[in-house]
Each structure stands twice: as structure tokens, then as C-alpha cells.
Amino acid sequence: MQNRFMEKAIALAIENVRRGRGGPFAAVVVRDGAIIAEGTNRVTFSNDPTAHAEIVAIREACQALGNFQLTGCEIYTTCEPCPMCMGAIYWARPAKVFYASTAKDASAAGFDDSFIYKQLKLPATARRIPMIQLMREEALEAFRAWEQKSDRIEY
Amino acid sequence: MQNRFMEKAIALAIENVRRGRGGPFAAVVVRDGAIIAEGTNRVTFSNDPTAHAEIVAIREACQALGNFQLTGCEIYTTCEPCPMCMGAIYWARPAKVFYASTAKDASAAGFDDSFIYKQLKLPATARRIPMIQLMREEALEAFRAWEQKSDRIEY
Fold first, then answer.
1. I need a labelling partner for A146 at 20 to 30 A (CA). Which of A3, A90, B25, B135 fits?
2. Nearest residue on chain B to A40, judged by CA atoms?
3. pLDDT digit string (tens) for A65-74?
């Protein structure tokens, strides 16, 4: 069963490359033994650097479920998720993730995954993209507005 | 100038909470001294766990530029980006990022940022969301298809 879903994801990834739609990555979201969403990498095709397979699949699955959580779902992705997609997975909170190739395999094929993982472990001041803090006090007002909002929807 | 852009982002974040559109976060993308895109958190409003302010702003900026890169742009975000958004920033490759409140401030207000940063530092097998590897050999075929594609668009 698990292999069948991963086979589907791998087929989608290869088709995505052959059709010139983006990078060699795909993912499917499964619930109760059925695929509820598919995603392929569309970065260059859609001019969207966030359109990784997992992000596309998570967004589509959430639309299908009418929910911002993937409770009880499984994600099958052809490659170990990059930090962006790992973050998205934590926010979507599926039950499990299955992956096939590794971040190292992705890096060997020219993708930045391992580099970004290393960057995220550095303090903000040591990162390649400069991160500069300003106006913290003023920004805390947004959190106060949130805490004071009695009908807020937590996520 | 920097403060003006951050003030705008903070105002958008507060307005987002007051209007019940999502969490207390906003971001703007600036190029050549002008705002080219704005984003606010839309997770609950759009049923999209990836709709963080930075992701929304990056996607909108890329559409405005017709490019999948934010070369030469600056991102002003009301809060230190979560791992998902940091990953997106690395893929979008802006020149600089300005942030106001910290991941710790976000966690104090009930958001998972610090938890996810800690999870990403753990090996896949030790993470809260189980990560299971299968079919690596079969998946490498997608990378081979990519390497063999002479007209591939790298990103």
C-alpha cells in the first residue's frame, strides 16, 4: 500500500520533468487509504519559489478537506523535505511522512536543501542572507492585539 | 526608510487580527525603495497552513516581477521567520531580511516557531512527526530524468 502511493509520487515527479513543468519532485497526500491531493514542483513554471511538491500537495489537500490541518493524513514525497517543506509539514500536522531520496541526493542533483539546513542552524547574524532586527517593541503590539481578541481562531 | 516599511508591515499585522483574517503577522517586499508586494497571515481564513505572511508576500512579489527569484529585494516581516518561511526566503534569495519581534516572542504568543526550529535540528528518526524512508533507489530515477533533460530550467 505504502509502495503504491510512493510509486505514484515517483511517476508524477518523472512526468513533471519530462513535461518541463519544474523540478524532479512530487508528493501525494493520503487519507483513509486514498489519495486526496497531488503536488509537483512548479517553481519555474509558476514563477513561485514556494511551489515545491509538498507545499502544493498540502495546500490542495487542505482545500479538499476544508481545513487548515491534515490530521490523520500521510504525506508521501519523492525526496526528504527541504526546510521550507518540513516547516509546512509541522504546521499542517499530518500523522506521518514517507520520503524516498534524501536531502543529500537532492543536493547532489543541484538543489540547495543541505545548504539551507546548515544555514538554519546558524545564528541569524551568521547567515548568508543578512537578517536585521528593528522595531521589536512596536511589533509586539500585534501580539497584544491577538491576545486581546476573544474570538481568535488558533492554529 | 527602513522604519517606514516596517511600520507598514506592523500596521498590516494589527489590521489582519482586527479584521479576523488570521494570525498577527505581516510582511512587505521592497524593491528600489518601493513596496512591490504585501502579505498577511491567512492560515485560518484561507484554510492554508502555508499562508504565512512571508510566503504570501513572496508569492505576490514573484508574480509582480514575473520571476521566481527576488534578486535585489528586501523583505520586511513583523516577526522573525519560522523555519518554513526561512526556507522560502532562501529559495527566493532576496538581498536582505528585516524582522521585528523574535521566534521566542511568537512562541510566547502561542505559535510553534521555536518548537519547529528545535525539531528540525533532530535527526529524522527522533522527530515528533514520524519520517519513514522507502524506495530511494526508485526515486533516484527522477533525478536522472532531470540530469538528462538538456533544456531544464535550474532554480
1. A90
2. B142
3. 999 999 999 9
Q: A44-56 in b/e burial notation, b at 16+ Cβ within 10 A? A: bbbbbbbbbbbbb
Indicate which of B15, B71, B101 best probes the interface with A, i.e. most A CBs within 10 Å of its own CB. Answer: B101
Q: Which pTM was predicted?
A: 0.96
pLDDT band at residue B93 using 50, 70 and 90 as cut-offs: very high
Distance CA A29, CA A93 (A): 12
H or E segment and range at residue B122: none
Length of chain B: 155
Find the closest chain A residue to B4 by CA distance. A135
CB–CB contact B100 A151 (8 Å): no
pLDDT in tens, B104-150: 999 999 998 889 999 988 888 899 999 999 999 999 999 999 999 99
First-to-last alpha carbon distance for chain A, in angstroms, is: 31
Check A68 against B44: CB less than 8 A apart: yes
Q: pLDDT digits over A101-144, tens only?
A: 999 999 999 998 889 989 988 888 899 999 999 999 999 999 99
Taking the CA of residue B39 and the nearest CA in chain A, the distance in Å comes to 14
- Measured between CA atoms, the residue of chain B closest to residue A61 is B48
- Please report the residues numbered 14 through 53 in chain B whose beta carbons come closer than 8 angstroms to any beta carbon of chain A: 14, 17-18, 20, 23-26, 43-44, 46-50, 52
CA angle in degrees (0–180, nearest 5) for A97-A101-A103: 90
